[in-house]
Design brief:
Blueprint (H helix, E strand, L loop, with lengths): L1 H16 L34 H4 L3 H13 L1 H22 L5 E12 L10 E17 L4 H68 L4 H36 L11 H7 L13 H4 L1 H22 L4 E12 L11 E10 L7 H67 L5 H35 L29
């Protein structure tokens, strides 16, 4: 049939003529320093390739992260967004191909005698079967190709955003879990302090009963006990809040392990050291930057579609089949029927719509450039802040360890001096308060140091290359370059 000859010819013309009118894409040059800062020398970094299990080695934390990856609502939403973008890409991709339809029609009509040319009533039948192409646009100017590229880049951006969400979720679960362990450690110290103060209260109560201690000294000890008990209650409330925050991240109730012993707690406070590498490596490591660049590419492709709208639109409608006024003669060779109806539409006056669409596409591309540059600079700041925090918090931990040792010695000497009558109990009370405060501050600073290491892992795109792909829809088939999107 004629249609079988026309379709390959039109396809050849389409492939030969469709050249995208989108501007050539060039990654914006964002000025970045060669290094992150003084004292932060770059080294070979493999953060993006370091799978999260290799960085967060605590078995309890690993179970919580696995639970979050399976049930977190934000991550589930991100996966559905990827599938939504994939379906939208499939719709746009299908516009580049002709729509073939098999049609079968039957009609029977009677013309009255006063309307008939013969002066007699006529009853006629018509039967038709065929294959048709309905309004297929020949993409000579690359409009459909540009729209297809924009949809593909939007899909890739959505998948990169899912990877960024996954990385953020892993970091949030780790940070919240470490915060819970910080509260556990502080609670253990507070409970030990409260138990010690109760023992002191028992001793001073006995001393007061026998007249070797004054009521003032007894009330001072009672004050210290009340303060210790108050801290325990506050930390228990804080622990519940941390547990609830963890439940929300996990998407289901967390099975929290019991409070750890000092030796177990010490193991939690260790994370694998990580080097930052070069600032330029962030462009390849962070999935949020990959998402911003894909959005920029999509905006760039939209300009090509807007430019192509100024040129003629050529559409093809064709039909080939068989027709007869008798059903039994429908498939006889002499009853072949066909039609071929190309159409050309050239915009002459549209009230400025095409120009406004082009202006809009260019503004959106410029906006995407600004957003990309902002994302890169924000990523650089994330790494620089995390490196700075890690450096100075490590020094603070060392200083506070020394301060804690001094406070322990001061508390011991104050107690010894009081027992020998060389000082008042007020000095002992002040030393005990300072000791409790120093112990609590050390735990909090160690927790802040760990938070900076988690933030560095996240800021460097840690584990981004090892994250699993999103479960995609069975169709449409994606191009080889998009079947397994990466952060590059």
């Amino acid at each position: 049939m004629l249609i079988s000859r026309l379709i390959p010819l039109a396809s050849a013309l389409l492939l030969a003529g469709c050249a995208s009118m989108a501007p050539s894409y060039e990654r914006p040059a964002v000025p970045l320093p060669a290094q992150y800062g003084a004292g932060m020398a770059p080294a070979a970094a493999a953060a993006a390739a370091l799978e999260w299990r290799g960085y967060f080695t605590d078995s309890a934390l690993q179970r919580l992260i696995e639970q979050a990856l399976a049930h977190n609502h934000d991550l589930r939403t991100a996966v559905l967004r990827v599938q939504e973008a994939q379906a939208a890409y499939g719709i746009q991709r299908s516009a580049r191909y002709p729509t073939l339809g098999l049609s079968a029609e039957a009609a029977r009509a009677r013309t009255p005698a006063d309307l008939s040319l013969t002066g007699h009533a006529i009853t006629a039948s018509q039967f038709q079967v065929g294959l048709g192409v309905s309004s297929w646009e020949l993409d000579f100017w690359g409009r459909l190709a540009s729209l297809n590229e924009a949809a593909l880049q939007s899909f890739l951006a959505t998948d990169a955003a899912r990877r960024a969400t996954t990385l953020s979720l892993i970091a949030q679960v780790a940070d919240t879990y470490l915060g819970l362990r910080e509260v556990d450690e502080r609670l253990r110290l507070a409970q030990e302090s409260a138990a010690s103060q109760r023992e002191s209260l028992r001793i001073f109560t006995r001393r007061f009963e026998v007249g070797s201690a004054s009521r003032l000294e007894l009330t001072q000890v009672q004050t210290l006990v009340a303060q210790a008990d108050s801290l325990v209650v506050q930390l228990q409330q804080l622990r519940d809040q941390q547990a609830h925050a963890l439940d929300l991240l996990l998407g289901s109730p967390a099975e929290l392990p019991p409070m750890q012993t000092p030796a177990q707690a010490e193991a939690v406070w260790q994370l694998t050291p990580m080097q930052a590498g070069l600032p330029s490596e962030l462009l390849l490591q962070r999935p949020d930057l990959a998402a911003a660049e894909h959005q920029l590419r999509a905006a760039n492709a939209q300009i090509g579609a807007a430019r192509a709208a100024f040129f003629p639109s050529i559409r093809l409608t064709a039909f080939g089949g068989t027709a007869s006024n008798e059903l039994d003669g429908l498939f006889k060779g002499a009853n072949r029927a066909w039609s071929f109806a190309p159409s050309l539409s050239l915009p002459i006056f549209d009230g400025g719509r095409n120009q406004a669409n082009l202006d809009l596409a260019e503004v959106r591309r410029n906006l995407a450039v600004v957003q990309y540059e902002q994302a890169v600079q924000a990523a650089f700041r994330d790494v620089a802040d995390a490196l700075s925090a890690r450096r100075w918090l490590a020094e603070q931990v060392q200083v506070q360890r020394e301060a804690l040792a001094v406070q322990r010695e001061r508390a011991r000497l104050s107690r010894l001096a009081y027992d020998n009558g060389a000082t008042s109990f007020l000095d002992v009370l002040d030393a005990e308060r300072s000791l409790i405060s120093a112990a609590q501050q050390l735990v909090q600073t160690r927790r802040a140091l760990l938070a900076s290491q988690v933030a560095l892992y996240r800021a460097l795109g840690g584990g981004a290359q090892a994250l699993p792909d999103a479960p995609l829809l069975a169709s449409p088939t994606l191009p080889a370059s998009a079947a397994a999107p990466t952060t590059h």
